[in-house]
Amino acid sequence: MAAKTKAAPKKSTKVGIRPLGERMLVQRVEAEAKSAGGILLPESAKEKPKEGIVIALGEGRMLESGERADWSVVVGDRVLFTSYGGTDVKYNGQEYLIMEERDILAVIQG
């Protein structure tokens, strides 16, 4: 069964970074400032969140047929990703991750 292809993602983003191929741009959500027990955490004690928002998508993975595979996520999805997934980049004072779709574990719904 041949995979469907979607319209190509926008060529530019508000951010100014366009991921290539099967990569996506994700912005981490802010780390919690309080513990589950209500204790305020200093910056050094905060764990980097493994959750973020998809900001931009590349063209998609190239299939043997020459078509592009559909993405399982769309821009704006809130996602959970692996601890070591992606490459950290800093652009215009903001931190982002460039990662592949296989680094995404789940889409948070609701």
Verbal overview:
With 110 residues, the chain is mostly beta strands. The chain has a single domain (23-108), classed as 10 Kd Chaperonin, Protein Cpn10, Chain O, CATH 2.30.33.40. 0% of the residues lie in helices and 31% in strands. It contains no helices and six strands. The chain has strands at residues 23-28, 51-57, 78-81, 87-91, 94-100, 104-108. The chain has a six-stranded antiparallel beta sheet, with no helix packed on it. The protein is globular, with a radius of gyration of 16 Å.
Which strand order does the major sheet show?
A: 4-5-1-2-3-6
Largest sheet: 6 strands, antiparallel
The quaternary structure here is: single chain
CATH uppermost class: Mainly Beta
Into which percent range does the helicity of residues fall?
Answer: under 10%
Number of helices, counting only DSSP H or I runs of 4 residues or more: 0
Give a count of the beta strands, DSSP E runs of length 2 or more.
Answer: 6
- Broad shape: globular
Mean pLDDT: 81
Distance between the termini: 31 Å
> How many separate domains make up the residues?
1
Low-confidence stretches: 1-12
Strand content: 25-35%
Helix and strand element order: EEEEEE
- Overall structural class, as computed from helix and strand content, comes to mainly beta
- The CATH architecture can be named as Roll
Radius of gyration: 16 Å
Compact description:
With 110 residues, this protein is an all-beta fold.
